[in-house]
Every structure is written in structure tokens, then in C-alpha cells.
Specification:
By secondary structure, this protein is α+β, with helices and mostly antiparallel strands. About 35% of the residues lie in helices and about 25% in strands. The protein has two domains: about 130 residues, Sandwich (Jelly Rolls); about 80 residues, Winged helix-like DNA-binding domain superfamily/Winged helix DNA-binding domain (Arc Repressor Mutant, subunit A). The chain has seven helices and nine strands, in the order αββββββαααβααββα.
Amino acid sequence: MSRKPRRSAPRRFNAQEFLDSSGLKRTIVKFPARRAVFSQGDPATDVLYIQDGAVRLSVLSKTGREAVIGMLGPGDFFGEGCLAGQDLRMGTATTIAPSTILAIEKAEMIRLLHDEPELSDRFISHVLSRNIRIEEDLVDQLFNSSEKRLARALLLLAHFGKDDTPVRDIPGVSQEVLAEIVGTTRSRVNFFMNKFRKLGFIEYNGRITIKKALLSVVLHD
């Protein structure tokens, strides 16, 4: 009795490979750390995709107060507000570390979302995940201590939760930048970073190495 050939698992869509494909109208720009990719009030003309590095999203109030509303890494889209009718950027995107950013013009992105179902699914998943993360960030800012907020920021920068990797490196992020992300002082960040290192949750070696055990700080009540 003949056996039916075993079906291979469907190939997971790789957004990076697709966006790197020939024929796609795009611009690739390399940014040093702490450089604005776009600023609040700039024309919203394209959608951006992080190939490498890290970006923080922030909003400046009329009184000059800045609030960090998101941290993104490789594989994340941003600037998608232009697809929903935004003529001007509602916030500022700043690199946390040296980053390679791919920019896709609005019209080209709309065409891709219509013509490429797999990319459309990936993009929708990204937008929904971003909305969930923004809600979690708001809860974090309202109810958690600066120690927990720092631990969560480090875990997000290391992209924990996407798989079971026990240890991850993140780009060299200064304590000043971490203080801005967390909403506290550099001295407090330095205190908690030293505490995390003594507890074996992180390591310094040119880059910051984050261990999954740091989750205990976030989960502990």
C-alpha cells in the first residue's frame, strides 16, 4: 500500500526578504545613534521598516514635555499613520543605536498591501501588536515603579517573547537614553543597572546582554 507523500510545512513569510527583493521602490538609509529619522510636524510621506538597530517613538506636548510612546527593533514598521490620512508626523522617531531604515513611499506601500496578501497580513499583525504594546506601555507608566519600567524596557529592546531564547544582546544604549525611555534620572538607571548586574540578570561587554531571568523583576509584585 503506497503512502501519501508528507506535506512540508508552509514557508513562513519573510518580510525582510520580500522588502529586499528587486523591483521594489524603496530607499535604504543608515542612521547613527540618537539621530531623528523624522520629527513631529514633518510631512508624512512614507512608511518605514527597521532592517537593523532600534528606534524610539516620542511625542512633544505644547508645553515642551516629551513622552516616549514606543520602542521598536528589527522587523518593525513605523510611520504608518500616512496610510490613514495623516499629512504630518504626529511624533518623532529617533534612533537608539546605529540603524538601517528602509523607507517605502506611501503610494508604493498601498499598492503592496493590495497586491501582496502575505505582506498585508504581516503588516496588519504588526499594527495590532503595536496597539497592544501601547496599551501595556500606558499601564506600565501609570502603575509600575521605575525599576520595573527599566526592566521592561530592556526586555522589549532585546525582543524577549518572540521565542524561547534565554539570552539576547541589545545595541549599545546609553544610560541617558534609557532614562529618557523610562522617564527617570540617569542616576536611578545606573543604580538599577548595577543591581540587575549583581543579580545576574544582565551583563556588560561592549553591548548589553539581557537574560530571561530579568522577567522576574517585571512579574514580581
